[in-house]
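Work Package 4 report. The design task specified in the project plan requires that, given a folded chain encoded as structure tokens, an amino acid be chosen for each position. We show below one input record used in the internal validation round.
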């Protein structure tokens, strides 16, 4: 036995490339048959004769549909079709085959033009339907995350009968750690042990994401080879196969652990493999198909629930961090250097995050406090970070890994917080080196064994506790540290804005950065609003009786977002009241005479914008549902007039005519509460409502301190609130809304937009998470129109937009940055919809493109 790091690295790389999905063997407890589209048997496992009274060679090359009854053939084809739709195997349970006394469960899926069928004897008729409900009941009762981990492994051990069940979480470096364990009393505990990343190679992790459960019935049983009708045919892809045989290295790994059978359940969060629930058994064990189906569903539900819990935890940490950092900001003097002001708060920052020093590099000015890198090494570090320009926060717990020249006697780890890209402004949080003890499950180094003239990579033979001592690294930065760092980033961005306003001598240089910072803050706030809107929208799909609630809440969120967008565009200064009305009412402008808008030019201060938007959103919504603009009114009208007095303030009159009579006010719903209470409570004004036989009348008085005479500097010409006749296309000339593509990397937002598009008439709405997959679909077909999120992770959709424009395919941009976002010159005429997209505005813009909606 020898250890050679170069040999190890080479062999580990080979292990990562091992085609474990092409092993051409299946496990012993079932058999596999693959057929062409015509039903000709192309592949068959050699062990068919162990289950049927026919040998594999007799079926190979024959038409399977002639060997089974018509009902089963029809069921298999149907299962194949369903498998293609859902993207995973479809199961047929307790089916009878010719020449067999046992009934079989059949898993069916497609690989290209080949139909793959896996047959497993029905071991038991015991129902496992209550397993899922029992597990989810456990999840709902355990609110604390550590208790949830412990409770789940205990429940799964009871439900599955495995001797050991572990929750295994992947760490940032790819290694994994056992964070919860339930086991038989006589077994050695693995809780708290760490396993190196190389224990689970890359291609295995990819398969864990595709197939949520994986079972190994016996590490001692012989596998059965696949026979092929064509000796030159490529190996059959068994990525989605339950019976797929196991890599010999992994089999030996389990034997070394004393494990006879195993099962894994994948936990996938935000599209990535967060961890595994690993189940071990001391003897052979076959997991029934009925139980496995429940565990696959549990994997999906538990992953969603855990994701939600982790998000809530991050929110709590972020809120605490924001509160602490607010104290830091309150101690900063605006007159001094921003970098100096920040580093002087080292002691307060230590209470927020465990650090030994801090450094700020702003416009090549570098100041530091505590244990910190020199300016020379910071320049080297900044050059290294340029390779990760998209990362807001970058963590390193061993600087030498980045560059040996960064080796330092004081600093071993750094959390780099990017404030701006041009110039490269950073805040660096430093940690000293510390002697760390990491408890591994055996020596984590892979072993290279000499067999003849060949070096062979062998799994560890011992899993006893093995302690690694490392004195060149800092304490690892955790995900919660990252959340705190992001809160620091936002706080410094706010402070930067304040500094830029104070320093008039650098206003010209500061303007661009201020716009970027405001845009970033606006993007984050709007995305939060959009996610709330999407969650509410998705909830409505399961309960029809809350649709009205969902629509109302969604519209209110959209109104808030619109007001926020206007404030941001106006740099949080006052907004013209006429423009504010126009933006709120435009979705309801169905004809030229529906509205009368008259009054002097006034502006509403930034503080009063949100209350005013809320109130007039409720007023116009109420008019559209029940009042002058409702379906029961053919000639309803709304008049909004106002006057301004320096003593009284602004008096706004609302009068509806031609609608249903209003004998008395409706019950006190949320909308009416907003109308009656918001202006008096938040602005110190007055609200008066007058039910009338001709329709609702109202008077709102806004105190003078919230109103400015004249319009704001960025006011657009909105003197006309009528519909532009040229934009109205006759119904007979409108195109059909047959299909749409959504290109958006947030699934929840995509599903919400998909729901809205279907509600306005689109029959087929497809979702793509990146530009590449959208282009692949466009190569096959053109939809009626596309909706493109501008920023998709590390890419944007501008080039795709230019290509669509050349092809003449209609599309919209959708973004959380607001309609004021700068577009490339070639795309300046493309309509930009701001998240969250209001359904009525969406319908109007689709009509403007000449489509039915």
């Amino acid at each position: 036995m020898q250890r050679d790091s170069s040999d190890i690295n080479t062999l580990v790389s080979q292990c990562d490339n091992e085609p474990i999905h092409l092993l051409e063997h299946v496990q012993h407890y079932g058999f596999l048959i693959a057929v062409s589209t015509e039903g000709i048997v192309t592949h068959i496992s050699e062990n068919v004769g162990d289950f049927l009274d026919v040998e594999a060679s007799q079926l190979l090359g024959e038409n399977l549909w002639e060997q089974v009854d018509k009902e089963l053939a029809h069921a298999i084809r149907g299962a194949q079709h369903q498998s293609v739709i859902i993207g995973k195997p479809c199961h047929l349970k307790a089916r009878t085959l010719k020449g067999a006394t046992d009934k079989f469960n059949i898993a069916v899926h497609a690989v290209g033009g080949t139909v793959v069928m896996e047959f497993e004897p029905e071991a038991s008729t015991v129902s496992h339907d209550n397993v899922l409900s029992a597990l989810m009941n456990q999840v709902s009762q355990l609110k604390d995350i550590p208790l949830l981990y412990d409770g789940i492994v205990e429940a799964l051990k009871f439900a599955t009968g495995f001797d050991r069940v572990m929750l295994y979480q992947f760490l940032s470096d790819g290694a994994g750690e056992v964070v919860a364990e339930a086991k038989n009393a006589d077994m050695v505990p693995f809780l708290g042990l760490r396993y190196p990343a190389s224990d689970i190679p890359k291609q295995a992790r990819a398969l864990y994401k595709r197939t949520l459960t994986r079972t190994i019935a016996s590490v001692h049983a012989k596998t059965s080879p696949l026979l092929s009708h064509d000796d030159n045919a490529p190996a059959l892809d068994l990525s989605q196969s339950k019976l797929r045989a196991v890599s010999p290295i992994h089999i030996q790994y389990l034997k070394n652990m004393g494990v006879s059978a195993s099962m894994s359940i994948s936990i996938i969060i935000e599209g990535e493999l967060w961890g595994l629930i690993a189940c071990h058994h001391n003897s052979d064990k076959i997991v029934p198909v009925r139980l496995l189906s429940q565990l696959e569903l549990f994997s999906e539900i538990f992953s969603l629930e855990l994701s939600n819990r982790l998000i809530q935890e991050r929110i709590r940490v972020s809120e605490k961090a924001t509160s602490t950092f607010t104290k830091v900001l309150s101690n900063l003097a605006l007159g001094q250097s921003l970098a100096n002001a920040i580093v002087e708060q080292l002691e307060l920052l230590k209470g927020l995050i465990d650090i030994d020093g801090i450094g700020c590099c702003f416009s090549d000015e570098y100041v530091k406090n505590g244990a910190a890198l020199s300016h020379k090494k910071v320049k080297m570090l900044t050059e290294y970070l340029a390779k990760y320009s998209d990362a807001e926060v970058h963590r390193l717990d061993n600087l030498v890994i980045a560059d040996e020249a960064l080796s330092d006697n004081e600093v071993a780890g750094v959390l780099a917080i990017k404030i701006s890209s041009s110039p490269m402004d950073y805040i660096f949080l430093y940690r000293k080196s510390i002697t760390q003890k990491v408890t591994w499950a055996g020596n984590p180094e892979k072993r290279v064994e000499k067999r003849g003239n060949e070096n062979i990579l062998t799994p560890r033979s011992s899993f006893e506790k093995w302690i690694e001592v490392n004195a060149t690294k800092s304490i690892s930065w955790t995900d919660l540290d990252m959340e705190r760092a992001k809160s620091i980033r936002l706080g410094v961005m706010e402070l930067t804005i304040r500094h830029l306003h104070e320093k008039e001598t650098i206003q010209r240089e500061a303007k661009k950065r201020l716009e970027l910072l405001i845009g970033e803050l606006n993007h984050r706030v709007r995305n939060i609003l959009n996610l709330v809107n999407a969650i509410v929208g998705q909830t409505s799909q399961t309960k029809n009786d809350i649709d009205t609630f969902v629509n109302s809440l969604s519209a209110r969120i959209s109104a808030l977002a619109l007001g926020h967008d206007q404030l941001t565009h106006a740099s949080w200064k006052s907004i013209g009241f006429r423009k504010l009305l126009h933006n709120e009412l435009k979705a309801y402008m169905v004809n030229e005479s529906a509205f009368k808008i008259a009054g002097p030019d006034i502006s509403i201060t930034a503080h009063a914008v949100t209350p005013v938007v809320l109130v007039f959103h409720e007023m116009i919504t109420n008019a559209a549902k029940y009042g002058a603009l409702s379906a029961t009114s053919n000639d309803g009208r709304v008049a909004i007039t106002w006057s301004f007095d320096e003593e009284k303030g602004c008096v706004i009159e609302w009068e509806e005519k031609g609608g249903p009579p209003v004998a008395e006010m409706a019950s006190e719903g949320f909308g009416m509460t907003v109308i009656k209470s918001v202006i008096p409570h938040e602005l110190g004004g007055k609200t008066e409502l007058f039910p009338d036989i001709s329709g609702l009348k109202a008077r709102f008085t806004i105190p003078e301190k919230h109103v400015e005479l004249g319009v704001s500097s960025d006011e657009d010409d909105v003197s006309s609130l009528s519909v532009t006749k040229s934009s109205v296309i006759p119904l007979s000339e409108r195109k059909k809304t047959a299909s749409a593509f959504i290109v958006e990397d947030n699934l929840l937002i995509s599903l919400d937009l998909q729901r809205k598009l279907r509600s306005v008439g689109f029959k087929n709405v497809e979702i793509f998470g990146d530009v590449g997959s959208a282009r692949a679909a466009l190569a096959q077909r053109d939809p009626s129109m596309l909706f493109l999120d501008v920023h998709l992770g590390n890419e944007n959709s501008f080039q795709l937009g230019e290509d669509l424009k050349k092809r003449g395919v209609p599309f919209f941009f959708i973004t959380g940055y607001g309609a004021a976002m700068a577009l490339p010159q070639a795309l300046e005429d493309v309509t930009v919809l701001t998240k969250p997209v209001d359904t009525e505005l969406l319908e109007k813009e689709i009509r403007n493109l000449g489509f039915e909606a």
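The CA atoms of residues 224 and 770 lie 40 Å apart. Validation will be extended to a larger panel in the next phase.
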